[in-house]
Design goal:
heterodimer; A: alpha/beta; D-Maltodextrin-Binding Protein, domain 2; 19 helices; globular; B: mainly alpha; two-stranded antiparallel sheet; 14 helices; flat
Chain lengths: 499, 313
């Protein structure tokens, strides 16, 4: 039955491709430049490539630099003039490369694509959010994801409180977590929360301290009137900085926040130094629970809905697949590569879970001590790091933008999400999906490249100094007016002029 | 009047001479290639400092605009002055402490004790700056778990932890202390080598003349070290514009006014701009840094000629 459906789906896919692309030439070879979010060589990239080529009939050349050096190598590749057909880009590079003319405009191709017109799209607004001045230069297969705030249920119980719903309740909870010995060790040695700095290093910047920033945004964003503005000098920022200063002065915020890395923050949460932690929704909810268990702590976490009056969590701009402007057959590459990633069938399954009997299996076997019956879907043991199992390939099964086609999953071949994903993952993902807003994709301009480095350094310094009580808000704004306002005005002007 | 005829030694023809030293020429070729590829060819990159260059499009000639912008940026001058200040004070402190430590080690009579002490004080140099920063962030933590604050609080000197690495008032002091810990031991090597070379006869003669330890140190050891101290200072002074790693791993948002140096300024210009950086501008900063370094080296060379009678280049 499954085979029959697969065949039908494959035929439908091929027909749709040929229909949609009657005059689109099928490429013989596609070169892609990818980071470590796609299966790596030690993890079975050759098998993945072979399977993709089998499904599409196109020769795929994969260039995959070391993940940590991806953008360095990419810049060198672009500078060399030898551009690949397709590349993966973070939001910053996406906007900058689009501005510099590196990327092919796929607006019309997307409008006519099989994916968009399939009726399977869960969240098309994510693609709309990738448009720069109304034009689309990249495609995302999932949402960007973001953070939600987790509170330890055991700590709430210990101080006899419910999950807070507004700032006053949140402040009272923080105060109790510092002063009422929530970990029960008889020593006043706890903080309500910590973070890796008072402001993040990449957009959306404020996602680790959402209760304090609320509706403030210290960088450039598009307001309700459709104009780019600098949020740093807006009134909401004053309230945010006052909340941060109050939290730091009263000891709610860990004193080492300024110098913490994210790993320090996680460890402090695991060892009961803190009880509130804003971190990634989804898979990380399960990771946090497992780590609390292994540290002999109560693992139950309450994901917080945004406080009353706060506009919600930020969904960051996802990484995108883009076609370069030097690609000889961009329409063909779009149709046969981009438009098949979420085809609702075997290719989407390949991007999501990998290759059968390499990354996942339905054989009767024992993997990492767990026995699986014949026909039961399970992920395989990681080839590169034995002792752990794969969780996905490139596309996230929960945050993907498109459902699989009706009939793809059957009673015999059930959707792996239904058996693989833990309840806390689903709970945090759902809470995030219901309470998040898309982060702004700020276009790059020459003026921004010129002044934003200095401006960001200044903003971050002033935020840290006000939060730590070394400066008042008024002093900080006076300094900002003196040093940064002119740069900010020029950047805002350039952004609005570029619309 | 002499009738002697000056006999010129007969020079071998070029080819046999090359053949004779073929091995050396082949070895020299590798060095020459290294110099050309890694030192001379990259010098053409200087031209980028007069362009606007975002890698994607060909560089556009902008003349001296990058330098105009550079000199007009308050953050640049702040970074420049921090570079000079941090480097010079760090150099003086680590050299001074290295000398003191070398003198103390030189006074140790127990060979095993001396070797053990040397090994222990060399060790921090082999610790990467990332690890060093992590260790000192723990030691200097403003909470009760930080060693320094815990001692100060228990002694009743302070009642609230000091954020040594998180405050502009204390960051530079903490930076110097960490650098002394990291580099002093390694700095003693060259001084210890000089001390080993002092003729023991001089000490014996001084002892016969009734000189004690202090007098021997003051009148024999220190004067013998003086030339080495000056050489070390001069050589290191020429490198003071290269400050990066030790600052980068210890700096944070709250202390940028006292910790931003030229190299970290370039880093933030490159990665904080929110767009593709203008490599022409960052190259201009690099060129300015090199020019200052060259100027310092020439000053050092002049100083060396004055002090030691010979230059360093």
């Amino acid at each position: 039955m499954k085979k029959l459906l697969t065949l039908v789906l494959a035929l439908v896919l091929c027909m749709s491709m040929f229909t949609a692309s009657a005059d689109v030439e099928k490429p013989e070879k596609i070169t892609i430049f990818i980071d470590g979010t796609v299966v790596t060589e030690p993890n079975g990239q050759a098998q993945f490539e072979a399977k993709w080529e089998e499904l599409t009939g196109i020769d795929l050349e994969i260039i995959q630099p070391d993940h940590d050096a991806y953008y360095d190598v990419l810049q060198q590749q672009i500078a060399s003039g030898d551009w690949p057909d397709v590349l993966i880009l973070s939001s910053t590079y996406y906007a900058a490369y689009a501005n510099e003319g590196v990327l092919w405009d796929m607006t019309e191709a997307w409008e006519n694509s099989a994916t968009k017109n399939s009726g399977r799209m869960k969240n098309e607004s994510v693609i709309d959010g990738l448009k720069i001045n109304g034009r689309l230069y990249g495609f995302a297969d999932g949402i960007g994801g973001g953070c939600v705030t987790y509170v330890k249920k055991a700590w709430l119980d210990a101080v006899n409180m419910e999950a807070p719903t507004n700032w006053e309740e949140y402040a009272a909870m923080c105060d109790a977590f510092v002063n009422n010995d929530p970990d029960g060790d008889g020593v006043k040695d706890t903080y309500a929360l910590t973070a890796a700095g008072f402001i993040g290093t990449e957009a959306p910047y404020i996602n680790y301290l959402p209760e304090f920033y609320q509706d403030a945004y210290p960088s450039f964003y598009m307001n309700a009137e459709g104009k780019w503005v600098d949020g740093f000098s807006e009134p909401a920022m004053k309230a945010a900085l006052e909340r941060l200063a109050e939290g730091y002065a009263k000891g709610w915020i860990d004193p080492t926040t300024l110098t913490n890395g994210t790993k320090d923050c996680r460890n402090k949460f695991y060892d009961d130094t803190t009880g509130v932690f804003t971190y990634w929704a989804g898979t990380w909810a399960t990771n946090l629970k497992n780590n609390l268990i292994s540290n002999n702590r109560d693992p139950e976490l309450v994901p917080l809905a945004p406080l009353a009056g706060a506009p919600g969590y930020f969904d960051r701009t996802p990484p995108v697949w883009a076609i370069t402007s030097t690609c000889e057959n961009p329409e063909g590459v779009f149709t046969w590569f981009i438009d098949t990633i979420l085809d609702g069938g075997d290719i989407q399954f390949l991007w999501t879970y990998g290759v059968e009997n390499v990354h996942w299996s339905r054989k009767a076997e024992t993997v990492l001590g767990v026995e699986y019956a014949e026909g039961q879907f399970h992920m395989a043991e990681n080839l590169e790091t034995p002792g752990t199992a794969y969780t996905k390939n490139h596309s996230d099964p929960v945050s993907t933008l498109a459902y699989f086609a009706d009939g793809y999953y059957t009673d015999e071949f059930i959707d792996p999400v239904t058996v693989m994903i833990q309840p806390e993952n689903v709970a945090s993902s759902n809470l995030f999906a219901a309470n998040s807003r898309a982060a702004w994709l700020v276009p790059s301009t020459d003026v921004m490249s010129t002044y934003n480095g200095d401006l960001t350094t200044l903003k971050n310094e002033l935020i840290a100094k006000v939060a730590m009580g070394e400066m008042t808000y008024d002093e900080a704004m006076a300094e900002y007016a003196k040093q940064g306002q002119a740069w900010s005005d020029m950047i805002v002007e350039s952004l609005n002029a570029a619309k | 009047m002499s009738n002697a005829v000056k006999v010129q030694p007969r020079k071998k023809p070029l080819l046999p001479r090359i053949k004779n030293y073929a091995g050396f020429y082949i070895m020299a070729l590798a060095v020459l290639a290294f110099l050309v590829i890694f030192h001379y060819l990259p010098m053409f990159g200087i031209a980028y400092s007069f362009t606007k260059y975002t890698i994607i499009k060909p560089p556009v000639w902008v003349g001296l605009k990058n330098f105009e912008r550079l000199f007009g940026m308050p953050n640049f001058w702040s970074a420049f002055s921090n570079t000079i200040q941090l480097s010079v004070i760090k150099l003086l402190l680590t050299t001074g402490f290295s000398v003191i430590l070398s003198l103390l080690l030189n006074e140790m009579n127990n060979i095993w004790g001396k070797k053990l002490s040397q090994t222990i004080i060399y060790l921090p140099h082999f610790m990467s700056w990332v690890v060093t920063a992590s260790v000192f962030q723990l030691i200097l933590s403003p909470t009760g778990q930080g060693l320094v604050n815990s001692i100060l609080m228990n002694l009743g000197i302070i009642d609230k932890g000091i954020y040594f690495l998180g405050s502009s008032a204390t960051w530079q002091g903490a930076y110097y202390v960490i650098n002394i810990w990291h580099d002093t031991g390694w700095g003693t090597i060259i001084f210890m080598a000089t001390l080993t070379g002092i003729d023991p006869g001089i000490y014996e003669a001084a002892s016969i003349d009734g000189a004690g330890r202090w007098k021997k140190m003051w009148y024999i050891t220190l004067p013998s070290l003086a030339n080495t101290i000056i050489t070390v200072l001069i050589l290191n002074l020429a490198k003071i514009m290269n400050l990066f790693e030790s600052v980068f791993v210890l700096q944070n948002d709250a202390v940028m006014d006292v910790s931003q140096v030229l190299q970290t300024y370039v880093y933030y210009q490159t990665f904080n701009s929110g767009g593709i950086p203008d490599y022409g501008y960052t190259t201009a900063i690099g060129l300015f840094r090199s020019m200052v370094g060259l100027f310092l080296m020439l000053v050092c060379n002049y100083a060396s000629k004055k002090v030691r009678g010979r230059g360093i280049v």
